Amino acid sequence: xxxxxxxxxxxxxxxxQFQNLLPIDINRSKNESSVGGNWDINYRTNIGxxxxxxxxxxxxxxxxxxxxxxxxxxxxxxxxxxxxxxDTKGVETNLxxxxxDFKMVYWIHLYRCQHTxxx
Length: 119
Description:
By secondary structure, this protein is mostly beta strands. It has one domain (4-117). 7% of the residues lie in helices and 61% in strands. Strands 1-2-5-6 form a four-stranded antiparallel sheet, with no helix packed on it. A two-stranded antiparallel ribbon has the order 3-4. The chain is elongated and about 65 Å long.
């Protein structure tokens, strides 16, 4: 499972409504790559007509050559590959209650840590 929360540059470009953003130079850009893993614990049971499901997840992702926003001539900005990587790790839990056709889900991020390492 890949966690997309670390793609902050894309959200920043959206926040400024893509104004003054140059197109990505496909001749100079490289594909981002990621390595990661997760491990989770699931438990399901019923109490009468109510189904209960519990999931606890641990994850780690390392994103290499991520695209970041940098300044460009003329007051423009552009995406450019970073020279480092982004490390993200965390723990989250979700609890589901099912009753007939109704489903209620509680999703809790218990811990999330993100570090950016650029040269």
